[in-house]
Automatic annotation (TrEMBL):
Keyword Metal-binding: yes
Keywords: Hydrolase, Metal-binding
Highest taxon above the source species: Eukaryota
Transmembrane regions listed in the UniProt entry: none
Cited SUPFAM superfamilies: Ribonuclease H-like
GO biological process, one term: DNA integration
Molecular functions per Gene Ontology: hydrolase activity; metal ion binding; nucleic acid binding
Keyword Flavoprotein: no
InterPro entries listed in its UniProt record: Integrase_cat-core, Retrotran_Ty1/copia-like, RNaseH-like_sf, RNaseH_sf, RVT_2, SH3_retrovirus
Positions of the Integrase catalytic domain: 1-107
This protein's name: Integrase catalytic domain-containing protein
Pfam family, any one: RVT_2
Length: 402
């Protein structure tokens, strides 16, 4: 294609590809005065100038990766740096002129060039570190940024490419030096030498350095705090910790030492569900699934004595939005409304009474079609294959708060 440019006239051939010279690209070329000259498909020799430049770039990328001993995953960074160096190198086609200088009309500078893959100490901004963190981290130089004046680096710790301009380069060191430095920092402990005063009357026996280092390490690890022996309690005090507690499942409840109380609590819960007409036993329709449930037990201490409570809870975490529920919300009164009521009661000298609705969650009607397995321990004989079609809300459902 022929490109008319005020600084440079370039002539290139574009190999024909499906859809490349059609539509928006063709309009773009027509608008900018670019003439497309197509080549025969699968004939790269007709576009020899561009193909030879591609070969030159690939060869230099291969050499840079081999010299730097970097993996092929860095080919993009090596190619960016290669193209930057080509644009800063005198060209025979331009009679020895520098491509970037010809293109921009400005004299180029080489002061910012650095050795590819050299070690660099990149400054860490204050807002990205704490007071005790290091002020710089060791990275690998990869190339130059085009959007702003700066450099591109590979951070081996975070496995990311970072950009920065506040950096100190070590152009005589490469990734191998960085790896050796890291191994030396982690693997070699620092030896500490402590001067020992000389006592003429009591000569000190010489101790090998390795033994002194081990004894010094033990001394540094030990604490000066006086250790007290562990208190050994009599066996009857451990019995207080084995009162049974609250059962975690139905099997533990029926094997509990107070199982009659837990069975009574479960019967009360089932009677409440039956009285409230919470569910019906039906066959599970095709394409539907039944949610699992669980018994939750709580032991409350009251003035009249311990109170055993059992709740049948649906495993609502298995519900899927759009299938088992749509909206999730909980109607809560505003604090401003409560303050108005209290203010009116105080102003008119009225009495306020508070009541508790037993099994409040079970009074809400369900709009969705939800099925649940029969509760453990209360499966109806002869109807074990049936499931519970929930008519009202139950503890654990996503929509139980509505």
């Amino acid at each position: 294609m022929v490109i008319q440019h005020p600084h440079l006239d370039r002539y290139e051939k574009e190999q024909r590809r499906q859809g490349l010279a059609r539509g928006p690209f063709e309009n773009y070329c027509r608008t900018h005065g670019i003439k497309l000259e197509k080549t025969v498909p699968k004939t790269p020799q007709q576009n020899g100038l561009a193909e030879r430049m591609n070969r030159t770039i690939v060869e230099r990328v291969r050499c840079m990766l081999s010299q730097a001993k970097l993996s092929k995953s860095f080919w993009g960074e090596a190619m960016r740096t290669t193209i930057d160096l080509i644009n800063l190198t005198p060209s025979v086609a331009l009679d020895g002129d520098v491509p970037q200088q010809v293109w921009t009309g400005k004299k180029v500078s080489y002061k910012h060039l650095r050795v590819f893959e050299c070690r660099a100490s990149v400054h860490i901004p204050r807002y990205e570190r704490s007071k005790l963190d290091a002020k710089a981290k060791q990275c690998i130089f990869l190339g130059y940024t085009h959007e702003e004046f700066g450099y591109r680096f590979w951070d081996p710790d975070s496995k990311k490419i970072i950009r920065s301009r506040n950096v100190v380069f070590f152009e005589d060191q490469t990734i191998e030096n960085l790896q050796k430095l890291e191994k030396a920092r982690v693997g070699n402990p620092h030896e500490i030498s402590i001067p020992v005063p000389v006592d003429v009357e009591h000569p000190v026996e010489e101790v090998p350095g390795s033994q002194l280092q081990l004894e010094l390490a033990d001394l540094l690890r030990r604490s000066d705090r006086i250790r007290r022996p562990s208190t050994i309690y009599p066996p009857h005090e451990y019995v207080l910790l084995t009162d049974g507690g609250e059962p975690e499942c139905y099997g533990e409840a029926v094997a509990h030492e107070h199982k009659e109380h837990w069975l009574k609590a479960m019967n009360e819960e089932m009677n409440s569900l039956s009285k409230n007409h919470t569910y019906d036993l039906v066959k599970l329709p095709q394409g539907k699934r039944a949610l699992k449930n669980k018994w939750v037990y709580r032991l409350k201490t009251e003035n009249s004595g311990p109170r055993y409570k059992a709740r049948l809870v649906v495993k609502g975490f298995n519900q899927k939005k759009g299938l088992d529920f749509e909206e999730i919300f909980s109607p809560v009164v505003k604090m401003s409304s409560i303050r108005v009521v209290l203010a009116l009661a105080a102003s008119l000298n009225l009495e306020i009474e508070q009541l508790d609705v037993k099994t409040a969650f079970l009074h809400g009607d369900l709009e969705e079609e939800i099925y649940m397995e029969q509760p453990e321990g209360f499966r109806v004989k002869g109807k074990e294959h049936l499931v519970c079609r929930l008519r009202k809300s139950l503890y654990g459902l996503k929509q139980a708060h509505r």
